[in-house]
Amino acid sequence: MDSEKIINPPSGFTVFFAFLAVSLIAIICFCTGIEALGFILGFVGLFFLVPGLIVVNPNESKVLTLFGKYQGTVKKDGFFWVNPFTVKKKVSLRAFNLNGQQLKVNDSIGNPIEIAAVIVWQIKDTASAVFAVENYIQYVNIQSEAAVRHLANSFPYDNLEDETATITLRGGAEQVSSMLEKELNERLDRAGIEVLEARISHLAYAPEIAHSMLQVQQASAIIAARRLIVEGAVGMVEMALNKLSEKNIVELDEERKAAMVSNLLVVLCGDKAVNPVVNTGTLYH
C-alpha cells in the first residue's frame, strides 16, 4: 500500500477566473451566432474546470485517487484546483474523542469488574486510514475495546487478594493509562492513527460481587487501623513504664507491671469509652 504523499495543487482562484472568462466568451459566441464554439467552451468550463475546484478547511484534508490509483493528499487549507477526474475524499485531521462503553470483564485473578476508557486520537497518515482499513472509525472502536479488555485481564483490580501485585488497576492509574496508550498506538498504527491520550474513566467491581468485596475492603481497613492502634498503645505503655521507673514514682514488681500493662492496653485499644473503677484494696487482696 502507498504511504501518504502530500501534494500542493495550484490555486483555484486562477482557474475560477479562467472559468468566468471562458463563460463570458461562450456567451458572446452564442450572441454572435458562433454556437459551436460556444458549446465547446461551455463544455470545457462545466466539465473540466469547475469539477476540479476544491476547498480544504483547516484541520481537514482531501485524499485524491485517479482511476483507482492514489495520487496524493492535500493537507494545506485553501482553495485549489486538481484533476477533475480524481475522486476526492474528505478526511478530518481533528482530534476525536472516544468515550468507550462500560465493559464487563474479569481481572487477572478472575474477579468480574466493570471498566471503561476515554481515548483521544487523530489521523496522522490519511492514506493508511482510507486504504488500509474498511472504516477507520469502526476500526478504532473495535480495537479500543479489545485493548481495554486485554488490559483488564492483565492486572488485578487491587491487591487485597494478590498482595504481590506491583501494579493494580485501581492503584496504578498512571502506569495503566500509559500501557493502554502504548498498546492502542501499536494496534492502530496499521490504520495511520495516533492515540494522543488514553485514560480509564470507569472502574468498579461487577454488581454481583461488589457487596462482598466492600466487606473485604472494610475488614482490611479495620485490621490496618487496629494494627496501628496496637502499635501506638504498646509504645505509650512502654513510655509510661520507663517514665515511672526513671522518676522513681512507684516501684512495680513484674506482676504489678503486667496488671498495669493490661489495664493500659484495655484503655488505649478499646473502641468504647472506659469507666474508671476505684480500687480500695490491693493487687493481692
What are its keywords?
7 helices; single chain; 3-stranded antiparallel sheet; 4-stranded antiparallel sheet; alpha+beta; 285 residues
Secondary structure elements and pairings:
Layout: H1 12-32, H2 35-49, E1 53-56, E2 60-66, E3 69-74, E4 78-81, E5 87-92, E6 96-99, E7 103-106, E8 112-123, H3 126-131, H4 136-154, H5 173-188, E9 193-205, H6 207-246, H7 254-269
Antiparallel strand pairs: 1-4, 2-3, 2-5, 6-8, 7-8, 8-9
Describe the structure.
The longest helix has 40 residues, at 207-246. The protein has helices spanning 12-32, 35-49, 126-131, 136-154, 173-188, 207-246, 254-269; strands at 53-56, 60-66, 69-74, 78-81, 87-92, 96-99, 103-106, 112-123, 193-205. The radius of gyration is 38 Å and the shape is rod-shaped. Strands 6, 7, 8 and 9 form a four-stranded antiparallel beta sheet that branches. A three-stranded antiparallel beta sheet has the order 3-2-5. It is of the alpha+beta class. Helix content is 47%, strand content 21%.
Low-pLDDT ranges: none
N- to C-terminal separation?
99 Å
Number of E-type strands: 9
Q: Helical amount among residues, as a percent range? A: 40-55%
Overall mean pLDDT score?
Answer: 83
* SS strand fraction: 15-25%
Which structural category do the helix and sheet elements fall into? alpha+beta
Count of DSSP H/I helices: 7
Brief sketch in words of this structure:
The protein has 285 residues and is an alpha+beta fold. It is 47% helix and 21% strand. The strands form 3 sheets. Strands 6, 7, 8 and 9 form a 4-stranded antiparallel sheet that branches.
